[in-house]
Amino acid sequence: MDNRTLYARRSAAHVQSHFNKQHKERLLKSIYTVVVAAGAIFVLAPTLWMVSTSLKEDGKVLLMPPQWIPSPIVWKNYVEALDFMNAAQVFGNTFFIVILSIIGQLVSSTLAGYAFARIDVPGKNLLFILVLTGFMLPVQITLIPQFIMFSKLNWIDTFFPLVVPEFMGAPFYIFLARQFFLSIPGEMDEAARMDGCGFFGIYWRIILPLSKPLLGIIAIQTFMHAWNDFLRPLIFIHSAKNQTVALALQSFTADYGMTPWHLLMAASLFALLPCILLFFFAQKYFIQGIVISGVKG
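RESULT FIELD:
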């Protein structure tokens, strides 16, 4: 076998190997695309059904097979839904609770986390372990004691039971803040003390400006929790004037003999919009929050 024949065979083998590699990569890419597309359809289908139902006539909501494109499109469903749920009052109540909850968690959780990270006192680790036991207590266990306590304070059917506990800190956020603050070099505290900063001065001028990712994820998660909270408002709020968005959505099934799905879906779409907008405008904090909660430790 001469050199030309050997070279030709090696070249052909190389070309075939390269072709097989490209074919394998294209196949894997196609499979990945199909899987992602199927997952996207699976995730988006409920939202698409909600949008479609919100634009249908009442009699066409439960037709089988489903009619994905409404005919005719009934825009007045949104007006009727907002009017029925008293949207201005309900959304105002919810935003008020959400804003105070975010402020409460940011202040209390970061202060507690800063104390656990920077102050050396006897029994600090034991106290931190006691705080972490809050992870193991389901929220439902504390509802009855809270209801009794708030009843004696005459706080039932007010916003206090929904807001005041947020100023006491949450075990998860305290843990997250402590772990994040431990990653900030202590030398910065020493330099600040030499410049005349005290405990709160270091917290306000050094720690918080370096903790924007932490503050972002605490604010976002508190917003999501307070906005979507149904159980606590159901227990502590009794009057229509103090209802939150979650309670207002539930009233569609309580006040009607049969659930008006077209109106409920229209109202649900408005309730979902703040969460969607928050995600689009704060995507980097969602990602940073995943990194912080998964790596810091």
